[in-house]
Amino acid sequence: MLRKPTLIMVLSLALAVPAMAADQTPKQALAQGQLNGLIEAQNALMAADQAGAQQYAKSLYDDAQMRLTFAQSNWNADKRATREMAKMRAEEALWGARAALAKSRWIGTNAALRGLQADVVRLGGSSNLTWMDEPGSVVVSRGANSRERIEYAQAVIDSAKAAGAEMLTGNDLKPAQENLNTARKLTKNDSTVESADHLAYDAEMMARRALYMVRYNESTRYMPDLQATRTRLAQAEADRIALAERQSREMAEARAAELQRQLDAEAANRMAQAADLEKLRSQLADSQRALNDQLAADRAARANAEASLDAAFQKYASAVAEGTSSDIETLRRQLEDQQMTLRGIQSREESNQQQRAEQIAALQNQLKDAQTQGSLNAQALADRQADITRRQQELDQLRQERQADMQRRTDLDRQRDQAIADATARRTELEAQAQAMREQIEQANNAAQQANAAAQVAQQQAQAAQQQAQTSSAALQSATEELERTRQQLAQRDSDARRAQLETELAKYGNTRNDEGRFIVALSGGLLFDTGKSMLKPGAKSTLTKIANQLRSDDSIRISVEGHTDSVGSEEMNQQLSEKRAAAVRDFLVNAGVPGDRISSDGQGEGEPIATNKTAAGRQQNRRVELVITH
Questions:
Q1: Helices (H) and strands (E) in the chain, counts
Q2: If I label 385, which of 214, 294, 433, 448 is the partner at 20 to 30 A Cα–Cα?
Q3: Separation CA 482–CA 536 (nearest Å)
Q4: Does domain 509-631 have CATH number 3.40.50.720?
Q5: H or E segment at 116?
Q6: Would you place residue 159 in the very low, low, confident or very high pLDDT band (cuts 50, 70, 90)?
């Protein structure tokens, strides 16, 4: 017989669940009925963590984590009351995690807005935009008893309504209000009731989630204008710097032209002014060296800018594949800054090239005038012609090099744009796969619960059969066999659920597929290793650590690490490289806690391509490390 507190708690949940599902579809009502499931709460808390909840919504995240920990520890407790309490804590953890996720998206967007606003001010602009904000850690005082906690939750609902949350699609304000109405009924005769506290907490988290969604939509509206203003100001700053440098070079070249004119004037009186003529020639040589030094400096600056741009792109591409929205926005701005810096340097080189051409044209005109006027002797004319020819050859070579570089950069930019598009598409595909796997896990959990119920029924039947053993030993044997089959089916379904969970988590880090009972995870070689190297990149170790955490969770699996390469280079070299890369990944996973007797490594070289080796995109797909998992 249930004790009084437990009975009140069960009745309150029975009243709350229909109220929460009143305006939902049958499918949504089924999902609502599973809110006390551990898997759904764990997934919600994981999503909040990935969105930055430990930074942007620490109070909500820590509270949800505490409730989930209690639910995990007491889910299969001996006492029914404790188990029911664990289910309530799991449901509370689910709504707390959803509120933390909504707040993280809102505060994370505010952080990106502040970064954009700081950039605008740094670039000489102004921004007076303000938006709602809230610290990540907030001290919440809900009251000393259930009635005070109910009123606190009502205040949060009223705040959400005042902010316009009722206009949001999918808001939970109506079921939140119904929860509070039920909680008030439960506290009519007693100021403190456990189940009323549970309903009040759920209602508060539903209202907070709706309120934070409204705030997120409000903050998002500021993003396009700030991005456009920052881009405009950054471009204006780059143009101003390029103009100042161009004016400086023009002044230097004007001085060189003036020196050249002085040298031509002095040539008519070279016998009387030989010393001065030599001095002017020295000055002209110094001016020419200065121009050459400027050319060398521009080339070095362009090389550094290209290297910085390449590094910024690699970080941005990695963020698009695995990072958060805040990381992607920050790295996008850095990539844009590097692109504008490179364009400014290219503009200076183009201006330098044009000015050299104008200088050569001026020298050719001066040479024609000297030939017409007869002011220079044959040797001086020959020297002038040789100097003009040398300058023209240098200019032609400069043009060819610059044209080749522009073509190379154009091709590289096209490849990068395609790579970003592919990464974005892949991210979208992986998220869709992850959602599908979560749905499969939920179905497996439902099946497991049904099997549990069947096992309990079978157990009761077996007990009844034992009582009738004197009259029907055959019936007892049949019931025992049926119980064993049910237990085996339940164990198999539990194993399938664990396998589905593992496959869902591993799908976040690479392409996955099933092949004759094997589950294969393909990790991009470009994300793990530098070209031609077998030493892991620093950024790859974070991903492999997360993978190791998943592989340790199931001691029934065996893992084979297989390295693959493209066809560039000799077959022997590719075979050795694939073996070293596979061994490097295996050693890291073992050091991260995966038992060494469950994992092996092997190199396949270039022998098993999954795409053509005739294109860069195909070769990139073939450069991979595969984790082959068997049960």
A1: 18, 5
A2: 294
A3: 53
A4: no
A5: helix 80-122
A6: very high
Helix (H) / strand (E) element for 562: namely strand 558-564
| Boundaries of every domain in the chain | 4-220, 244-376, 509-631
Q: What angle do CA 195, 198, 199 make, to 5 degrees?
A: 90
Backbone angles phi, psi at 357, to 5 degrees: -65, -40
Please report where in the chains the tokens 């991005």 appear, as a residue.
227
What whole-number distance in Å separates Cα of residue 110 and Cα of residue 326?
10
Q: In this structure, which long-range contacts are made by residues 537-546, counting pairs with CB atoms below 8 Å and at least 24 apart in sequence? A: 539/318, 541/588, 543/322, 543/509, 544/585, 544/588, 544/589, 544/592, 545/592, 546/508, 546/509
Q: HEC string of 148-159?
A: HHHHHHHHHHHH
The answer to whether 123 and 233 are in contact (CB under 8 A) is yes
Say yes or no to pLDDT of 538 above 70. yes
Beta bridge partners of 523: 625
Q: Which amino acid is at 621?
A: Q
The predicted model scores a pTM of 0.43
- Amino acid identity, residue 598? R
Interacting residues of 614 by C-beta distance below 8 A, sequence separation 6+: none
Its sign, for the CA torsion 298, 304, 308, 310, is positive
Per-residue pLDDT at 454: 67
Average pLDDT of span 244-257: 87
Phi, psi (deg, nearest 5) at residue 469: -60, -35
d(CA 409, CA 412): 5
Rg, Å, the chain Cα set: 36
